[in-house]
Write a structure and sequence with these properties.
Layout (H helix, E strand, L loop, with lengths): L1 H18 L55 H6 L9 E4 L1 E2 L8 E2 L1 H13 L3 E2 L6 H4 L8 E8 L3 H13 L3 E5 L12 H10 L2 E5 L13 H19 L5 E3 L7 H10 L3 E7 L11 E5 L6 H7 L2
Parallel strand pairs: 1-5, 1-10, 2-3, 4-5, 5-6, 6-7, 8-9, 9-10
Helix pairs in contact: 3-5, 7-8
GO molecular function: hydrolase activity, acting on carbon-nitrogen (but not peptide) bonds
Main location: secreted
GO cellular component, one term: extracellular region
Protein backbone atom coordinates (compact mmCIF):
# COMPACT_ATOMS: atom_id res chain seq x y z
CA UNK A 1 0.00 0.00 0.00
CA UNK A 2 2.85 2.33 0.89
CA UNK A 3 4.42 1.70 -2.53
CA UNK A 4 1.10 2.54 -4.22
CA UNK A 5 0.81 5.87 -2.37
CA UNK A 6 4.41 6.69 -3.27
CA UNK A 7 3.71 5.96 -6.94
CA UNK A 8 0.59 8.17 -6.95
CA UNK A 9 2.37 11.02 -5.17
CA UNK A 10 5.22 10.99 -7.70
CA UNK A 11 2.78 10.99 -10.62
CA UNK A 12 0.98 14.06 -9.29
CA UNK A 13 4.30 15.81 -8.65
CA UNK A 14 5.47 15.12 -12.22
CA UNK A 15 2.19 16.45 -13.64
CA UNK A 16 2.45 19.69 -11.68
CA UNK A 17 6.09 20.15 -12.69
CA UNK A 18 5.35 19.56 -16.39
CA UNK A 19 2.52 22.10 -16.45
CA UNK A 20 4.44 24.81 -14.61
CA UNK A 21 6.68 27.02 -16.82
CA UNK A 22 10.26 27.51 -15.83
CA UNK A 23 11.23 30.91 -14.51
CA UNK A 24 12.91 31.93 -17.76
CA UNK A 25 10.38 30.37 -20.16
CA UNK A 26 8.44 32.73 -22.44
CA UNK A 27 5.50 32.20 -24.75
CA UNK A 28 4.91 33.97 -28.05
CA UNK A 29 1.43 35.44 -28.48
CA UNK A 30 -0.75 33.66 -31.04
CA UNK A 31 -0.36 34.91 -34.59
CA UNK A 32 -3.01 37.40 -35.64
CA UNK A 33 -4.41 37.67 -39.12
CA UNK A 34 -3.99 40.98 -40.91
CA UNK A 35 -7.24 42.97 -40.58
CA UNK A 36 -9.24 43.24 -43.75
CA UNK A 37 -9.12 46.69 -45.39
CA UNK A 38 -11.95 49.01 -44.50
CA UNK A 39 -14.67 49.84 -46.97
CA UNK A 40 -13.66 52.03 -49.88
CA UNK A 41 -12.90 55.58 -48.81
CA UNK A 42 -14.40 58.36 -50.93
CA UNK A 43 -11.69 60.50 -52.55
CA UNK A 44 -10.79 63.52 -50.49
CA UNK A 45 -11.89 62.21 -47.11
CA UNK A 46 -8.37 62.36 -45.73
CA UNK A 47 -7.12 65.22 -47.88
CA UNK A 48 -5.26 67.21 -45.26
CA UNK A 49 -1.96 67.07 -47.09
CA UNK A 50 0.11 69.20 -49.44
CA UNK A 51 -0.92 69.04 -53.13
CA UNK A 52 1.62 67.30 -55.32
CA UNK A 53 1.90 70.30 -57.63
CA UNK A 54 3.61 72.22 -54.82
CA UNK A 55 6.74 70.10 -55.15
CA UNK A 56 9.91 72.15 -55.11
CA UNK A 57 12.60 70.84 -57.41
CA UNK A 58 15.29 72.22 -55.11
CA UNK A 59 14.15 70.03 -52.22
CA UNK A 60 13.04 67.01 -54.21
CA UNK A 61 16.17 64.85 -54.14
CA UNK A 62 17.37 65.12 -50.57
CA UNK A 63 15.38 66.89 -47.88
CA UNK A 64 12.61 64.39 -47.50
CA UNK A 65 13.57 62.17 -44.68
CA UNK A 66 13.67 64.37 -41.62
CA UNK A 67 11.97 61.63 -39.65
CA UNK A 68 14.01 58.79 -41.13
CA UNK A 69 14.16 55.84 -38.80
CA UNK A 70 17.84 55.19 -39.37
CA UNK A 71 18.83 51.60 -39.59
CA UNK A 72 15.23 50.40 -39.43
CA UNK A 73 14.19 48.52 -42.33
CA UNK A 74 15.43 45.66 -43.01
CA UNK A 75 18.52 44.48 -41.55
CA UNK A 76 16.55 41.24 -41.45
CA UNK A 77 16.18 41.30 -45.22
CA UNK A 78 19.92 41.65 -45.74
CA UNK A 79 20.79 38.89 -43.30
CA UNK A 80 18.34 36.51 -44.92
CA UNK A 81 19.79 37.24 -48.36
CA UNK A 82 23.49 37.43 -47.70
CA UNK A 83 24.18 35.71 -50.99
CA UNK A 84 22.54 38.58 -52.89
CA UNK A 85 25.02 41.35 -53.64
CA UNK A 86 23.38 42.95 -56.67
CA UNK A 87 22.75 46.68 -56.69
CA UNK A 88 19.80 47.96 -58.68
CA UNK A 89 19.36 51.52 -59.93
CA UNK A 90 15.77 52.68 -59.39
CA UNK A 91 15.16 55.76 -61.52
CA UNK A 92 12.74 58.40 -60.24
CA UNK A 93 10.68 60.39 -62.72
CA UNK A 94 7.47 62.35 -62.31
CA UNK A 95 5.80 64.10 -65.24
CA UNK A 96 6.83 63.36 -68.83
CA UNK A 97 5.89 66.59 -70.55
CA UNK A 98 7.14 69.78 -72.17
CA UNK A 99 7.19 72.28 -69.31
CA UNK A 100 10.09 74.76 -69.42
CA UNK A 101 12.24 75.32 -66.32
CA UNK A 102 10.66 72.59 -64.22
CA UNK A 103 13.00 69.80 -63.23
CA UNK A 104 10.18 67.39 -62.36
CA UNK A 105 8.86 67.41 -65.91
CA UNK A 106 11.12 65.55 -68.32
CA UNK A 107 10.33 66.17 -72.02
CA UNK A 108 9.07 63.06 -73.84
CA UNK A 109 11.88 63.18 -76.42
CA UNK A 110 14.50 63.21 -73.63
CA UNK A 111 12.71 60.43 -71.75
CA UNK A 112 12.74 58.32 -74.91
CA UNK A 113 16.43 59.02 -75.53
CA UNK A 114 17.27 57.98 -71.98
CA UNK A 115 15.32 54.74 -72.21
CA UNK A 116 16.76 54.04 -75.64
CA UNK A 117 20.25 54.43 -74.21
CA UNK A 118 19.45 52.04 -71.35
CA UNK A 119 18.17 49.50 -73.83
CA UNK A 120 21.21 49.78 -76.10
CA UNK A 121 23.56 49.61 -73.09
CA UNK A 122 22.04 46.26 -72.11
CA UNK A 123 19.88 47.30 -69.17
CA UNK A 124 16.74 45.27 -68.55
CA UNK A 125 13.75 46.93 -66.91
CA UNK A 126 12.11 45.06 -64.05
CA UNK A 127 8.86 45.44 -62.16
CA UNK A 128 8.76 45.33 -58.37
CA UNK A 129 6.96 42.02 -58.66
CA UNK A 130 10.02 40.67 -60.45
CA UNK A 131 12.23 42.06 -57.70
CA UNK A 132 10.85 39.40 -55.40
CA UNK A 133 13.46 37.16 -57.07
CA UNK A 134 16.05 39.58 -55.70
CA UNK A 135 14.95 39.12 -52.10
CA UNK A 136 14.68 35.36 -52.66
CA UNK A 137 18.33 35.21 -53.68
CA UNK A 138 17.60 34.24 -57.28
CA UNK A 139 19.72 35.47 -60.20
CA UNK A 140 18.87 38.81 -61.78
CA UNK A 141 19.72 40.16 -65.23
CA UNK A 142 23.29 41.38 -65.54
CA UNK A 143 22.16 45.02 -65.76
CA UNK A 144 18.78 45.42 -64.03
CA UNK A 145 17.03 48.78 -63.74
CA UNK A 146 13.65 49.89 -62.37
CA UNK A 147 11.85 52.89 -63.89
CA UNK A 148 9.43 54.70 -61.56
CA UNK A 149 7.08 57.64 -62.14
CA UNK A 150 5.58 59.34 -59.10
CA UNK A 151 2.08 60.81 -58.57
CA UNK A 152 0.18 59.46 -61.57
CA UNK A 153 0.25 62.37 -63.99
CA UNK A 154 -1.95 61.98 -67.05
CA UNK A 155 1.08 62.38 -69.29
CA UNK A 156 2.33 59.06 -67.91
CA UNK A 157 -0.42 57.64 -70.14
CA UNK A 158 -0.28 60.05 -73.08
CA UNK A 159 3.52 60.38 -73.33
CA UNK A 160 5.41 57.79 -71.25
CA UNK A 161 3.19 54.79 -71.96
CA UNK A 162 3.60 54.90 -75.79
CA UNK A 163 7.39 55.16 -75.38
CA UNK A 164 7.47 52.16 -73.04
CA UNK A 165 5.47 50.11 -75.53
CA UNK A 166 7.62 51.25 -78.44
CA UNK A 167 10.84 50.22 -76.67
CA UNK A 168 9.33 47.15 -75.01
CA UNK A 169 10.32 48.38 -71.55
CA UNK A 170 8.56 48.36 -68.17
CA UNK A 171 7.87 51.02 -65.55
CA UNK A 172 6.09 51.41 -62.23
CA UNK A 173 3.71 54.30 -61.65
CA UNK A 174 3.23 55.30 -58.01
CA UNK A 175 -0.37 56.52 -57.96
CA UNK A 176 -1.84 58.92 -55.42
CA UNK A 177 -5.42 57.67 -55.05
CA UNK A 178 -7.01 61.02 -54.23
CA UNK A 179 -5.74 62.41 -57.55
CA UNK A 180 -7.48 59.72 -59.58
CA UNK A 181 -9.65 61.09 -62.43
CA UNK A 182 -8.53 64.67 -61.86
CA UNK A 183 -7.85 66.73 -64.96
CA UNK A 184 -4.06 66.41 -64.86
CA UNK A 185 -3.94 62.85 -63.54
CA UNK A 186 -4.67 59.32 -64.65
CA UNK A 187 -8.21 58.02 -64.91
CA UNK A 188 -9.36 54.63 -63.71
CA UNK A 189 -9.72 53.47 -67.31
CA UNK A 190 -6.17 54.58 -68.15
CA UNK A 191 -4.82 52.66 -65.17
CA UNK A 192 -6.63 49.52 -66.25
CA UNK A 193 -5.36 49.80 -69.81
CA UNK A 194 -1.78 50.43 -68.73
CA UNK A 195 -1.85 47.59 -66.23
CA UNK A 196 -3.35 45.11 -68.67
CA UNK A 197 -0.67 45.92 -71.25
CA UNK A 198 2.00 44.37 -69.05
CA UNK A 199 4.30 47.37 -69.56
CA UNK A 200 3.17 49.29 -66.47
CA UNK A 201 2.91 48.15 -62.88
CA UNK A 202 1.17 50.29 -60.27
CA UNK A 203 2.35 51.00 -56.76
CA UNK A 204 0.78 53.15 -54.07
CA UNK A 205 1.78 56.75 -53.37
CA UNK A 206 -0.71 56.98 -50.47
CA UNK A 207 -4.24 58.36 -50.51
CA UNK A 208 -3.57 62.09 -50.48
CA UNK A 209 0.17 62.73 -50.94
CA UNK A 210 0.48 64.09 -47.41
CA UNK A 211 3.77 63.85 -45.56
CA UNK A 212 3.21 60.74 -43.49
CA UNK A 213 5.33 62.13 -40.67
CA UNK A 214 2.79 64.93 -40.19
CA UNK A 215 -0.12 62.61 -39.39
CA UNK A 216 -0.85 62.63 -35.67
CA UNK A 217 -3.92 60.39 -36.04
CA UNK A 218 -2.79 56.80 -36.49
CA UNK A 219 -6.09 55.77 -38.11
CA UNK A 220 -5.61 58.37 -40.83
CA UNK A 221 -1.97 57.42 -41.24
CA UNK A 222 -2.93 53.77 -41.57
CA UNK A 223 -5.59 54.64 -44.16
CA UNK A 224 -3.01 56.51 -46.27
CA UNK A 225 -0.96 53.33 -46.52
CA UNK A 226 -3.37 50.40 -46.19
CA UNK A 227 -6.48 51.86 -47.82
CA UNK A 228 -4.54 53.12 -50.84
CA UNK A 229 -3.30 49.59 -51.52
CA UNK A 230 -6.84 48.26 -51.33
CA UNK A 231 -8.15 50.91 -53.74
CA UNK A 232 -5.43 50.21 -56.31
CA UNK A 233 -6.00 46.47 -56.09
CA UNK A 234 -9.68 47.03 -56.86
CA UNK A 235 -8.66 48.88 -60.02
CA UNK A 236 -6.02 46.46 -61.27
CA UNK A 237 -7.35 43.18 -59.90
CA UNK A 238 -3.85 42.15 -58.79
CA UNK A 239 -1.80 42.56 -55.59
CA UNK A 240 0.04 45.86 -55.19
CA UNK A 241 3.53 45.08 -53.98
CA UNK A 242 5.25 48.48 -53.77
CA UNK A 243 4.79 51.75 -51.89
CA UNK A 244 6.38 55.17 -52.33
CA UNK A 245 6.54 57.55 -49.35
CA UNK A 246 5.19 60.97 -50.36
CA UNK A 247 8.06 63.47 -50.23
CA UNK A 248 10.18 60.54 -49.06
CA UNK A 249 9.07 61.15 -45.47
CA UNK A 250 8.49 58.20 -43.13
CA UNK A 251 8.86 57.20 -39.51
CA UNK A 252 8.60 54.05 -37.40
CA UNK A 253 4.79 54.04 -37.45
CA UNK A 254 4.62 54.47 -41.21
CA UNK A 255 7.08 51.62 -41.67
CA UNK A 256 4.95 49.43 -39.42
CA UNK A 257 1.83 50.09 -41.49
CA UNK A 258 3.68 49.45 -44.75
CA UNK A 259 4.68 46.05 -43.44
CA UNK A 260 1.21 45.36 -42.03
CA UNK A 261 -0.43 46.17 -45.36
CA UNK A 262 1.61 43.46 -47.06
CA UNK A 263 3.79 45.56 -49.36
CA UNK A 264 6.96 43.77 -50.43
CA UNK A 265 8.94 46.95 -51.15
CA UNK A 266 8.89 50.66 -50.39
CA UNK A 267 11.03 53.42 -51.86
CA UNK A 268 12.23 56.70 -50.46
CA UNK A 269 13.61 59.74 -52.25
CA UNK A 270 17.10 59.65 -50.82
CA UNK A 271 19.69 59.55 -53.58
CA UNK A 272 21.53 56.35 -54.30
CA UNK A 273 21.49 52.89 -55.87
CA UNK A 274 19.19 50.35 -54.21
CA UNK A 275 20.65 47.37 -52.42
CA UNK A 276 19.22 44.93 -49.91
CA UNK A 277 21.38 46.23 -47.06
CA UNK A 278 19.16 49.34 -47.07
CA UNK A 279 16.14 47.25 -46.23
CA UNK A 280 13.33 46.49 -48.65
CA UNK A 281 11.13 49.21 -47.10
CA UNK A 282 13.64 52.06 -47.49
CA UNK A 283 15.20 51.56 -50.91
CA UNK A 284 17.10 54.47 -52.44
CA UNK A 285 16.40 55.92 -55.88
CA UNK A 286 18.17 58.07 -58.47
CA UNK A 287 16.39 61.31 -59.31
CA UNK A 288 16.30 62.13 -63.04
CA UNK A 289 15.61 65.87 -63.51
CA UNK A 290 14.84 67.50 -66.84
CA UNK A 291 18.10 69.47 -66.53
CA UNK A 292 20.16 66.27 -66.78
CA UNK A 293 21.87 66.14 -70.17
CA UNK A 294 22.24 62.95 -72.15
CA UNK A 295 25.99 62.98 -71.54
CA UNK A 296 25.35 63.14 -67.79
CA UNK A 297 22.79 60.39 -68.05
CA UNK A 298 25.15 58.12 -70.00
CA UNK A 299 27.88 58.62 -67.41
CA UNK A 300 25.47 57.54 -64.68
CA UNK A 301 24.37 54.49 -66.65
CA UNK A 302 27.24 53.38 -68.90
Amino acid sequence: MKALWTFLFCGVLLTITACTPAANQTFAPPAQELPQPAAATPPGQYNAGIPHDQYNAETEPSQHNAANASGTAGSAASSENTQVAAKIPILMYHSISETPKHDLRVPPRLFEQQLQHLKEAGYQTLSFKELEDWTAGKPLPAKPVVITLDDGYRDNYTAAFPILKKLNMKATVFMTIDHLDQETNLTAQMIKEMHESGFVEFGSHALTHVRLTEHKDNDRLRAEIVQSKYELEKLTGTPVTSFCYPYGAYNEQALAYVKEAGYKFAVAMDEGVAELSQGVYTLLRIYIPSSMTMDQFKKKFP
